[in-house]
Structures are given as C-alpha cells and as structure tokens.
Amino acid sequence: MHITQLNRECLLHLFSFLDKNSRKNLAKTCHKLQEVFQDPLLWSLLNFHSPVELRKDNFLLGPALKHLSICWYSQRVKMCNIEDWMKNSFQKDFCKRHENTVSDFLLDVCNRCPNLLSLTLSGCGHVTDDCILQLLKNCPNLKSLKLENCVRITDHTLKAVTLHGASLQTLQVDFCRNVTKAGLERVREKCPSVMLRAERSANMIPDSKPEKTLMLEKASRKLVQL
C-alpha cells in the first residue's frame, strides 16, 4: 500500500511523529500530503530552539495552536545572560541580527492564534513588556505563561497579568532580573489563585551598569587622555 492510500486520520497521525522539516519535505511530494501538512489539527503544538527556525516556512500558525515554546541557549554566545556593555563584538552582532525576531513572531501569534493555552519563553532577551501585554489581551484563554531569563520583562508585565490574565493559572518569571518584589507581591495579592514562581528574579542585579563600573570607565578615559 502506498502512503497516499491511507485515510486522512492515519496521515495526520503519521505526520505528528515528524519534525517540522520532515513534514515540509514530505508535503512537497504530492498534493494530498500537502493538504495534510496544511491541516490545522497538525499544528496545535509548536517548539522552537533557535531564532532561525522562526523565519522558516515549515510550520503553520492558526487558531488551532494551543501550546507554544520558544527556548534557546548558546554555549558560544550567552546573549541573554549578560548586559550589552559586557558583550564582545560577535555577541553584539548576533543580538542585533535577532533583536526583533521573537517579538515580531509573537505579535503574529497575537493576531492569528487566539486559542493559545500555554506559552514558554526561555532565553528570549529581546521580548518586551508590550509584547506580553498584547498576548494577554489577544489570547484570553492563556493558562500558563512561563518566562525564563527574559531580561526586558519588568513589573509592567506583572501588572498586565493582573489586568488581563483572567484565565492564567501558572506564571513563572525565573531569572527575569528586572521585575521587583513589589510587583510580585501585587500579583500574589490580586491573583491569589495563580501559581507564581520567580526563582532568582527580583533580587538579581538590574540590567544597567553598576556605579563602580562607570567610575572605573571614567578613570580609564582620563588616563588615556593624559
């Protein structure tokens, strides 16, 4: 029996075991498999592990998407673990090229995936409060929001949770060093049913240069001038 002789349900089940690239390549072989590839039922879960993956055409975004995960780390470039002033030229160039990749993708999710139930972002250092605000507004069924090492996330995101996270059950802001204890307490007060976790967040070093470092830089510049 040829694969195209299988019914739609069997083909969907077969596709579900394949990664995004394999699904796309198989869909190129005939019109019937292309139709299976485009079936919304196939795209209720999406996982991404690098910025480049977000720009490919090997997946579909739509109302069927329920669970989304964007998590990446780099042993060579720890782009989201240190401030801009500590990065070398390679790291800065890497970050600049991908600065808006995740945010633009998430705004697309806002417009096309209103039934999203869970979102996990890890190592996404350029995601902003406004992006999360739009997600909370446009995805009213969101039950789980997990943010890890998203350094631009601040108390504005926590406030958005209290205003627009009516369905939220789980909130994690681990290693989001620019949220404060006051912001976390506000969430606990206004959303007591939300399971909140903030490991190593509010008491970490903020995303700015320490005063001592600024003084050393000024002294160095003066020595160079002399």
From TrEMBL:
GO BP terms, alphabetized: SCF-dependent proteasomal ubiquitin-dependent protein catabolic process
InterPro entries: F-box-like_dom_sf (IPR036047), F-box_dom (IPR001810), Leu-rich_rpt_Cys-con_subtyp (IPR006553), LRR_dom_sf (IPR032675)
Gene3D superfamilies tied to this protein: Ribonuclease Inhibitor
UniProt KW keywords: Leucine-rich repeat, Ubl conjugation pathway
Domain F-box: 9-46
GO cellular component, one term: SCF ubiquitin ligase complex
Keyword Repeat found: no
Record protein name field: FXL22 protein
Gene that encodes the chain: Fbxl22
